[in-house]
Amino acid sequence: MLDKAKRIPVAVVLAPVLAVLLALIVGSAFILTVGESPFSAYKVLLQESFGSMRGFATTLQRATPLMFTGLAVAFAFRAGLFNIGAEGQLYIGAFAAAWVGFTFTGLPKIIHLPLAVMAGMIGGAIWAAVPGLLKAKFGIHEVINSIMMNYIAYFLTDWLVTGPFQGSTMIPETKRVAASATLSRLMPPTRLTTALYIAFAAAAVMYFLMWRTKLGYEIRAVGLNPTAAEYGGINVAKITVAAMAISGALAGLAGTEQILGLNNRFIQRFSPDLGFMGVAVALLGKNHPVGIILAAVLFGALQTGAAAMDRLTSVPRELITILQGVIIFFVAAEYLFTRFMKSKGEA
Amino acid sequence: MAIVLEMKGITKQFPGVLANDRISFDVEEGEIHALVGENGSGKSTLMSILYGLYRADAGEIHVRGQRVQINEPRDAINLKIGMVFQHFMLVEPLTVAENIVLGSEIKRGPFLDYDRAVAEVERLSESYGLKIDPRAKIQDLSVGLQQRVEILKALYRGAEILILDEPTAVLTPQEVDDLMEVMHNLRAKGTSIIFITHKIREVLAISDRVTVLRRGKKVGTKATADTNPQDLAEMMVGREVLLQVEKDEAKPGEDVLEVRDLVVKDSRGAYKVNGVSLTVRRGEILGIAGVEGNGQTELVECLAGLIHPESGQVFLGGKDITDWPPLRIKQAGLGYVPEDRHRRGLVLDYSIADNLILGLHTEAPFRKRFGVQDFKAIRDNAGKLVEAFDIRPPYPHQPARKLSGGNQQKVVVAREFDRNPELLICAQPTRGVDIGAIEFIHQQVVAQRDRGAAVLLVSAELDEILSLSDRIAVMYNGKIVAVLPREEADEHKLGFLMLGGRLEDYKAGGGNNVAG
What we know:
The complex is a heterodimer. By secondary structure, chain A is mainly alpha-helical. Chain A contains 13 helices and no strands. Chain B folds into two domains: 3-237, 3-Layer(aba) Sandwich (Rossmann fold), CATH 3.40.50.300; 255-345 and 419-505, Rossmann fold (3-Layer(aba) Sandwich). At the A-B interface, α8 and α9 of A face α10 and α11 of B.
């Protein structure tokens, strides 16, 4: 029996690794078509993203927001909810953090920074709680609502940064946040900040909450079998709203990191689809905090290496987008594969 | 009589389990041969081999004296073997005739000749005495009639050997009677039927011979006339089984559950419970008999707080619990075994240990300060209950999904009974559970009664109602139409009431019955 208990995690770990390896092989074919050696291209990629402390720091810096959005999507997913609105929650969280950052100047950092971070989480939480509530109260599917909430977030922040909160320039962005609200850099000149620690802490909190507490027990029960959860005295509506809100808070942290750690102001439509990338990260990371950190680092490394590969070889940086897509394809295929194996095994 | 089918030394190995171990089995022309055994005894595997769904590792199949190879269902169909599965394979929006001819359509040019298909189905249903409207849509038919369509489908393809895989599992008692009649008609026409079941009653009621399997091995084949329930149960389980529940006279105390004029709608807004009033006293078992779908499900779900009533009141131990949320009702002393353990009773992907605290997880000892779970308490609880309720295999960390139906039900029973509830509601407590576990669960229900619980038992199995209940209420069309002391109830009378008959109109058959 013990060996069986151990066998499951092996498969869980092996499958994503396999997906990545297969993606690299498929990527090789593309590299060959532009007349480059896959080995040298991948070597450049690896060297750039992991070969030096500086490169590694950049990898981690790019991975940080993906850790937050990955955790956000995974948290909702455990409750059986597909939060595709992480992008909008990220924008609202980012704006809330920026607003606290440039409004409450003159506070000491020890108060101002946590306040701004809290604001980012609350902003994201509120934005996600709306589709949660609509699902719980009226049964409206969260995918539809969270997508629509994305658009509301885009246009709301568009208006905010071109209207009431536009900075002094003609550029659509807010004022700079006060220095007392910025995250400290860990390794200048790289832009890696203490947000990385917050991401690790968020992953640890998610693990603890999900697998060590009553709330986590209830969230997972709702995700696996809502009718049985209801029978077991769990308030499914309350759990739905709570899980969405926590998911949104995590997405809000991604936006917060972009403001307080990277841009130091809210720039219109700043996010390169970090919220949607979170879906891919969660999928590859098997909705587990540790897996999500690793998946985020992988995606961060691909992005870091992309520029160098573009510069030093004839492989265009778009290869990275292909790789990301193929990874997701194989992870999705793996779900089909395991289901296939299961039906064979039970036969 | 001539032997039409013979399976010799069939062996099938699955990873970790020998599903069929040198099983030999034969069927005569025009006989109903019951194939019985508990879950996992290998009867479905054997029939799947016969129908070409699996291939045997060893053994031979002879049909009408010829040795044959059956590699896929098409081979079986060509040999005039038909199979009706538990889960129907019908296209719901299409009509009966369209479903029956599907795959071997009567065509006129490139199109289906619908009128001829209808005529063909009518001819078939006439000759076998299987009444059906060929133009009805499948989705409008009852489960019993859908099954009839499946049987006709097999006959349309020329089946002379018909395999019925647990056909009665999905049927109401009336539909079971109809099916038995159909089987009689088929036998009279010379069709051979292999009847898979684990209900001894049905074996005795209809079969000519019976073959018992246990753990992949054949225990024996007997003429049904030469056997009896006790004998069959022992062959199936491998030890002596108490078919009759032993219990003392009930010593009822005060009212624990009181229901007043309860009205409940289902999720589609149809009235399912139309003014039910009843009481259950401490130390008694009140059985609710009734054909399924007469409001029992909604009544029970409402008592557990899972559906809100339209009107009426529910009292538990004198407290008005109407409209309380499920958790509060549980904490007020309800133990509840739901009728559908997969939908309600278990989170199948949770471990046995986690399932054993569902509904108790909000309180000590499983919850410590700050909402943190106490894993030692959860483990200890699981260890204790797995042993006390003989849950097998005894590995608390294993997902509930991996357990057999009987053991899954034991997990639910263990959780709900161990708390010694004031009121215990058991809905279909032994559905899809094998005989050994049925015996165990019945004993536990009686033990709860003797401890002083008020027990409300809802079951579609009249046997279960009659052997456990101290009083019996009959539910029909959302109402309790009669409440009888156990001594005044028998199968006949209950059957009459369950179909909407009035107690005043009942003519006692045996003379013992006193209309009350």
